[in-house]
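The protein record passed on below.

***
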Amino acid sequence: MAGVTHLPAPHTWHFVENEAEIASPALLLIQERIEHNLRKMIEIAGGPERLRPHVKTHKLLPLVERQLELGITRYKTSTLAEAEMCAIAGAPDVLLAMPCVGPNGHRLAELALKYPATHFSSIVDDEETIRVLASAAQQHGVDLGVFLELDCGMGRTGIAPGQAADFLVHVIKDTPRLLLRGLHAYDGQVHDEDLATREEKCAAALAPVLAFKAKLEGEGMILREFLTGGSPTFALHARHPDRTCSPGTTVLWDFGYGDRYPDLPFLPAAVLLARVISKPGPNRLTLDLGHKSVAPENPHPRVRFEELADATTVMQSEEHLVLETDRAHEFTIGQTLHGIPRHVCPTVSMHGEAIVVRDYRAVETWPITARNRKITV
């Protein structure tokens, strides 16, 4: 029996009028949804000045430029390439939220030399990291900002609030060319679906950090910024005016966070365009969407298709994804499907470019600016 082609209905959110021109697999970005997410971020934070969004999700120069237009002046990054991307966009304030080891202290100092209009900072949780930054800053004749990284329960990086952390604060303050900017506490271990549980765990995680902060300020220590949280706890931290918030996934969103956090008003804005390349059985469809095109670290489903939300994944290899569905007969070879990734951040970095969709048409291509670990420095 001949297949029945089911195209996306005109003006469904994932409809792309000229998608026949787009080679698959492809990463599509729906500009109207990105705009919605950016404005919701600002609304929840209470203003752009409360935000230091993480750019690791999108790694895109045009998105940093758009956030600057909306009044967001501070940014958080995971790599030096992301930090340089923000400086290229003209961001006044960039934090590298990774301890600098090996040559990376010198690379950060070189960025400070190359982009004098941008103030660069990094995090530290050890005296050796402070020495690396200090040596680089002094050799290059630049000032580098420093945030003390506090462990609030995740156990990944950071030092527990207490006497050893207090010692590091004073080392930073007394080191030439290093400027103490403030405290950084990431509660990535708090990701409960239930909002009340998330609230309770977020408050418990921050309690020792807040006590430590109060002690420092009571002794006259000037902390210019208190940077907390990620996307799951973003709205909780936003309630407290003394905190800067650094959500990242909120810009593009995904179904992993969408399913877990219905209390957060963000929309999936990144779509994976795939095509049926084979029908190897009566109830099977093979798509050109392997684990080189969508983040593979989670169990299946790693991608959820708008046209086949209940399809079961049979297998996935580097370039292929095999689905099982009773509706396979409805789809034809070459037909497109539109998938939402479970985890958008590593999915973006698997693509060299993104196709921007505006008013239901693919209108331009954006290179994934900071996909590689280095731009120039």
Observations:
- Residues 1-7 have pLDDT under 50 and may be disordered.
- The radius of gyration is 23 Å.
- The domain at 19-29+266-367 is CATH 2.40.37.20 (Lyase, Ornithine Decarboxylase; Chain A, domain 1).
